[in-house]
Write a structure and sequence with these properties.
With 181 residues, this protein is mainly alpha-helical. The protein contains 10 helices and no strands. The model has no long low-confidence stretch (mean pLDDT 90).
């Protein structure tokens, strides 16, 4: 992820392998191609963001679960290693298929998982969400706001842990006020 963020999608596999302290063949054996490596990196990030939705008891505590989801989403955007997303956007014109895959396996997939969670909460009577996918988009937008744009422009957001917690808590509280049963 660091090499791709620093050197772009044209970064040589030799450099990626060297930084990972493995042979180039090991990288190809494990991922098959650079596109598959990028997909794996994006899927790992999505798994991190959506992990709170799969925690035991998550369905019984929607506000706490949404707070944890928001916290991980903000933490990912707050990290300095958001470069992979920047590079993907820069390369979208030349590599539209890869850009589409990154979007599908990244942002779209994480929002779909949140929508599934909201649908389950609605079925259980803890929330009232008529359009779970739209509500998931609203929640993601409320949490990220302009922070994602700042991160893509390499301008921050440089939030402290306390600021991440406060923002995540407020987003979850407001969302539950709108959609809680």
């Amino acid at each position: 992820s660091e090499v791709l963020g620093e050197r772009g999608l044209s970064a040589p596999m030799e450099e990626i392998a060297r930084r990972a302290r493995v042979s180039k063949q090991t990288v190809y054996n494990h991922y098959g191609s650079k596109a598959e490596l990028v997909r794996a990196l994006v899927e790992r990030r999505v798994a991190t963001i959506t992990a709170p939705l799969r925690e035991p008891g998550a369905e019984e505590r929607p506000e706490e679960t949404l707070r944890a989801y928001a916290r991980t989403l903000l933490a990912v955007v707050n990290r300095k290693n958001y470069a992979l997303m920047r590079v993907t956007i820069q390369s979208a014109g030349a590599m539209p298929d890869l850009a589409r895959e990154v979007f599908e396996s990244g942002p779209r997939h994480s929002r779909a998982q949140l929508a599934e969670y909201l649908e389950l909460e609605t079925s259980a009577g803890r929330m009232t969400v008529r359009n779970p996918l739209q509500a998931a988009e609203f929640f993601g937008g409320m949490v990220l706001g302009h922070r994602q744009t700042k991160a893509l422009l390499n301008l921050g957001p440089d939030l402290t842990e306390d600021e991440i917690d406060a923002s995540a808590s407020e987003a979850a509280r407001v969302f539950m006020r709108a959609y809680g049963a």
